Backbone:
C-alpha cells in the first residue's frame, strides 16, 4: 500500500538531515509494513532513532515541503514487473509477497534511498527467496528482456529491414548482434499478443456496478456482496488494471466486535485482528488454502484480495447435498446482513442431506493436510467449521477465513482473556473456557473431527441446542455419539471422529497429517494406523460396503 505523502516526507527529511541512517529507515519501513496503522514518525521515535525535538524540526520542514506540487508514485519498472511475474509463474513466491516487496521498494524510492534495492534483494532480505532462486530468475528474466547491453534500451527490428550482421541501438548506437535483435523482436511480439489476449470484454455485471460511484474502490469495482461477518465484508470484485475477477475482503469502520478504541482505520482490536488474518493467510501457499493476492487501504479502509472460487461452502453441501444448483457463488451467506449461520442465534435441529461417505472422507483428508501445512508454519486456524471450507466445481476443498488465526511468531492479536471466540458447535472444550492462549494445533484437530461428524451424519455436534447452551456444556460433557445419528456408520469412521474429538488434547491425533493418513488408509481399504480397541480385521469387500453404504 502507498503511505500518505506526509508520512513519507518525515522519513525523507530525517534521512536527508542525517537524523537516521538508511538501515534505520529501512528497519522502520519494514515495521510499518507489519503495522500500517502506526505512523512512520512514531515508529522512529519508539525505536530511539529520533527524539521529540527532531520531530518538531522535521514538522517545520515538512510544512514547507507541502507547498510543492505533489509527487506521483511510479509504477513498477518493466524489469521488476517481469521479475515478479516469473517468480509467481514458477511458484517461487506468492503474488502477495511480490506485491508487498514492490510496495516497499516504491516507498524507499519515494524517500530518496539511493541506490534503491532491487526487488530480488528485498525478497531475500525478507526471507521470501534464497540467492540461488534469485540468480535463476534473473537468467530467465534476461532471456525475456533483450535490452541493449550498453544502455539498457529495449531492442527490436523492423520486418521490412534487410538482413544485417549487426543492428545499432536506437539510443546509444552500440552494435547489437543480429540474432540478439531478432530474438528481442520475437519476444516483444509475443508479449504484445499476450497483452491483446488479456484485453478481455468486461462482464455486464461489472459495467453495471462500475456506473455506481459507491461501487468503485480504488482500482477495484465491487460487483456484489458475497459474505459478511464480524471480521469483515467480502465482495466479488473486478480488478480493473488486470481485467480479473477476485474476492475482496474489507474491514468496515464499525462492527459488532468493536472494543471502543478508535483509529482512522476502524476499531483498534478489529484492525489488529484483520492485520493478523492478512499476515497469517498470506504466508500460506497450499493447493487447498484460498490464496491472498494483495492487501492495502482505500479511503482508510483496510482490504485484502484473494482468488475468487466458484463453489459452495460445506454447510451448504451438508444442507442441500452435492447438486449443481448449490454451485452458484463463493460463499453461502445472507448478504442483507448477519453472518449467514443460523446456528449463532438458534438451535439447529433439521437434518441436512449430507454427502456420500467416500466424498466426505476425501474432502476431510485434503483439508486435514492443508491444516497440517499451516501448523508446520506456525499458523493455528482456531475457527474451522463447514462455513469456512468451500468446495469448487471440481470437488476440491479450500480452507479460508483466518480471522481468528494465531501466528506463533507474531503473537496473538485475537487474544482477550475471558472472551470466547469461535463457533461453539465446532470448538473444543478448552476454547469454550475463554482462554485463547490454550487453543492450538490440537484444538484445530478437534474442529476437523467436529466438521467430519456433521459431514457423515447431517447433524452438527450438540444439535438441538443454542450456542449459549453449547458453551455451557462443552467443558462438562461430550456431544451425542455420532452413532446416535448414523447407527450403521463404519466402526473405523466412528473411531476416526472420536479420536479427533477426544476431550483431552493428548488423546487426539497428533497432527493433521496423522488424521489424513488414517482417512487415506480407510479409503484405500487398509487398516488404520491405530485400530479401535476390540476391532476385528475386515475384508476389503466389507470396507467397500462401508464406503458405498448397505
Residues:
Amino acid at each position: 500500500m502507498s503511505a500518505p505523502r506526509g508520512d513519507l516526507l518525515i522519513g525523507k527529511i530525517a534521512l536527508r538531515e542525517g537524523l537516521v541512517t538508511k538501515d534505520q529507515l529501512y528497519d522502520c519501513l519494514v515495521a510499518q509494513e507489519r503495522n500500517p496503522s502506526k505512523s512512520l514518525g512514531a515508529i522512529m521515535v519508539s525505536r530511539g532513532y529520533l527524539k521529540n525535538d527532531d520531530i518538531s524540526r522535521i514538522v517545520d520542514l515538512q510544512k514547507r515541503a507541502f507547498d510543492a506540487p505533489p509527487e506521483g508514485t511510479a509504477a513498477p519498472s518493466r524489469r521488476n514487473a517481469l521479475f515478479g511475474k516469473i517468480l509467481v509463474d514458477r511458484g517461487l513466491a506468492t503474488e502477495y509477497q511480490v506485491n508487498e516487496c514492490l510496495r516497499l521498494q516504491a516507498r524507499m524510492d519515494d524517500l530518496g534511498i539511493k541506490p534503491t534495492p532491487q526487488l530480488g534483494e528485498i525478497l531475500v532480505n525478507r526471507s521470501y527467496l534464497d540467492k540461488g532462486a534469485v540468480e535463476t530468475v534473473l537468467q530467465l528474466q534476461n532471456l525475456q528482456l533483450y535490452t541493449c547491453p550498453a544502455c539498457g534500451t529495449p531492442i527490436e527490428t523492423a520486418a521490412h529491414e534487410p538482413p544485417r550482421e549487426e543492428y545499432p541501438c536506437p539510443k546509444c548506437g552500440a552494435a547489437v548482434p543480429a540474432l540478439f535483435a531478432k530474438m528481442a523482436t520475437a519476444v516483444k511480439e509475443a508479449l504484445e499478443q499476450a497483452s491483446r489476449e488479456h484485453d478481455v470484454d468486461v462482464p455486464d455485471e461489472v459495467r453495471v456496478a462500475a456506473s455506481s460511484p459507491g461501487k468503485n474502490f480504488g482500482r477495484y469495482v465491487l460487483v456484489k456482496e458475497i459474505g459478511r461477518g464480524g471480521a469483515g465484508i467480502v465482495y466479488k470484485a473486478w480488478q480493473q488494471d488486470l481485467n480479473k475477477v477476485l474476492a475482496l475482503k474489507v474491514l468496515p469502520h464499525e462492527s459488532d466486535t468493536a472494543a471502543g478504541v478508535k483509529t482512522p482505520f476502524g476499531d483498534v482490536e478489529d484492525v489488529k485482528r484483520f492485520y493478523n488474518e492478512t499476515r497469517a493467510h498470506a504466508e500460506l501457499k497450499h493447493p487447498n488454502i484460498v490464496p491472498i493476492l494483495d492487501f492495502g487501504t482505500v479511503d482508510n479502509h483496510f482490504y485484502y484480495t484473494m482468488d475468487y472460487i466458484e463453489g459452495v461452502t460445506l454447510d451448504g453441501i451438508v444442507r442441500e447435498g452435492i447438486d449443481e444448483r448449490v454451485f452458484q457463488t463463493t460463499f453461502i451467506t445472507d448478504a442483507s446482513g448477519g453472518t449467514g449461520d443460523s446456528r449463532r442465534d438458534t438451535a439447529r435441529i433439521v437434518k441436512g442431506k449430507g454427502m456420500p461417505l467416500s466424498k466426505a472422507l476425501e474432502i476431510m483428508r485434503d483439508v486435514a493436510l492443508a491444516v497440517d501445512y499451516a501448523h508446520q508454519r506456525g499458523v493455528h486456524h482456531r475457527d474451522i467449521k463447514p462455513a469456512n471450507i468451500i468446495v469448487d466445481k471440481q470437488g476440491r476443498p479450500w480452507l479460508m477465513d483466518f480471522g481468528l488465526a494465531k501466528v506463533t511468531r507474531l503473537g496473538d492479536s485475537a487474544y482477550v482473556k475471558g472472551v470466547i471466540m469461535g463457533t461453539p458447535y465446532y470448538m473444543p472444550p478448552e476454547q469454550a473456557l475463554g482462554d485463547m492462549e490454550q487453543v492450538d494445533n490440537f484444538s484445530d484437530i478437534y474442529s476437523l473431527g467436529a466438521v467430519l461428524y456433521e459431514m457423515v451424519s447431517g447433524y452438527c455436534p450438540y444439535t438441538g441446542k443454542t450456542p449459549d447452551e453449547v458453551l455451557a456444556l462443552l467443558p462438562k460433557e461430550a456431544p451425542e455419539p455420532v452413532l446416535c445419528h448414523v447407527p450403521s456408520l463404519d466402526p473405523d469412521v466412528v473411531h476416526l471422529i472420536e479420536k479427533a474429538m477426544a476431550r483431552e488434547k493428548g488423546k487426539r491425533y497428533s497432527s493433521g497429517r496423522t488424521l489424513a493418513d488414517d482417512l487415506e488408509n480407510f479409503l484405500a481399504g487398509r487398516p488404520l494406523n491405530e485400530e479401535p480397541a476390540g476391532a476385528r480385521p475386515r475384508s476389503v469387500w466389507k470396507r467397500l460396503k462401508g464406503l458405498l453404504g448397505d
Observations:
- Confidence is low (pLDDT under 50) at residues 65-73, 324-350, 532-541, 543-547.
- The first helix runs from residue 5 to 16.
